[in-house]
């Protein structure tokens, strides 16, 4: 597999709650890992975000959009980013997430992945190999991939604790507790202590620019 690992998320904290253990695990294994956050409202969450990704030991960027709409402008901006970073795997939100902007993020990412591979747009177009969808608060009914994060969960927990504005919303400790319980549940499902769950979504090769679609025989 070529390329690095890129998580594209709607808001600060989505990267940590959804796939923080996976990001930290790949970073500690020497893989190139980056987070792209599309919004940052209110602005004081910017420091929390960069402190969190530092806890995960990954690189990060923020677009700082006020809202997420599936628009040609944002699709092109993400396609440019993908073509520049050249990730092998992208992680983003579920299309059935409860949050409107999470669903919009998924839609933009799917379109951007397709356009980043178009040779009519990019002289050195980039074809992403895998798209994984993470669970933040909305749970995945039947995960297709479970990643053992037992040894990287301490980094995820440290990153969770950077989000003081979010933690203050639920004084009974919702975010630390729900993330730990999610990880325990997913760990039980794959016989490890702690894990994170994903759906792997197949990427279409529908455009006229994929030479590898040609085949001599089907069987």
Description of the structure:
It is a single chain. By secondary structure, the protein is α/β, with parallel strands linked by helices. The protein has a seven-stranded mixed sheet with strand order 3-2-1-4-5-7-6, sandwiched between helices. Helix 4 (100-116) links the parallel strand 4 and strand 5 (130-134). It is globular. It has a single domain (4-213), classed as LmbE-like (Rossmann fold, 3-Layer(aba) Sandwich). The chain has seven helices and seven strands. Helix 1 (14-28) runs parallel beside helix 2, helix 1 packs antiparallel against helix 5 (153-160) and helix 3 crosses helix 4 (100-116). The chain has helices at 14-28, 45-56, 72-85, 100-116, 153-160, 164-167, 174-189, and strands at 4-9, 33-39, 59-65, 87-92, 130-134, 145-148, 195-201.
Structure characteristics:
Rossmann fold, seven-stranded mixed beta sheet, 7 strands, 219 residues, alpha/beta, globular
Structural domain tally: 1
Report the sheet-strand fraction.
15-25%
The best one-word shape is globular
CATH structural fold name: Rossmann fold
| Element-by-element helix/strand order | EHEHEHEHEEHHHE
CATH class: Alpha Beta
Question: What's the layout of helices and strands?
Answer:
Blueprint (H helix, E strand, L loop, with lengths): L3 E6 L4 H15 L4 E7 L5 H12 L2 E7 L6 H14 L1 E6 L7 H17 L13 E5 L10 E4 L4 H8 L3 H4 L6 H16 L5 E7 L18
Parallel strand pairs: 1-2, 1-4, 2-3, 4-5
Antiparallel strand pairs: 5-7, 6-7
